[in-house]
C-alpha cells in the first residue's frame, strides 16, 4: 500500500491539488471525476503496480525535480562538444524532461494530467 507521502507526491507530480483533511474525496470544491479516479487507483494498485510507480516514476521524478534547481547532477549543460559550448536551453530542456515524465506517469496510472500540469501543448485557450 502506498504511504501518505507517496500519495502526496503522485498527486503533485500528476498535477492535482492537495487532498487536504476532507473525510470523503468526493466532497467539496476539489472533487472531479479524474481526481476521484486517481484516488481510487492509488488505493487499489496491485503490488507490482506500486513497485513500478515507486521505482520507475516517483524516484526518477524526485531526481528530475531536484535537477531543475541543482543543475550539476545531470549533463544537459553541453550544447556542442570539441569546442565546448554551454547549452543555453539547459533549464528549458530539464523542465521539458520533467514535465514529459510526469505525463508518462499519468499515462501509466490511466488518468488525465491534472489541472496544474496542463495539456502539454504550450497554449491553452478557455472559452
Question: How does this model look, in words?
Answer:
With about 130 residues, the protein is mainly alpha-helical. Helix content is about 50%, strand content about 5%. It contains 4 helices and 2 strands, in the order αααββα. It has helices at about 5-15, 35-45, 45-70, 90-110, and strands spanning about 80, 85. A hairpin with a 4-residue loop joins strand 1 and strand 2. Helix 3 runs antiparallel to helix 4 (about 90-110).
Write the layout of secondary structure elements.
Elements: H1 4-14, H2 33-43, H3 47-69, E1 78-80, E2 85-86, H4 90-109
Antiparallel strand pairs: 1-2
Helix pairs in contact: 3-4
Question: Which key phrases capture this entry?
Answer:
mainly alpha, 127 residues, two-stranded antiparallel sheet
Q: Overall pLDDT, averaged? A: 80
Number of domains: 1
Number of strands: 2
Order of strands across the widest beta sheet?
Answer: 1-2
Q: Which strand-content bin applies to the residues? A: under 5%
Short précis:
With 127 residues, this protein is mostly helical.
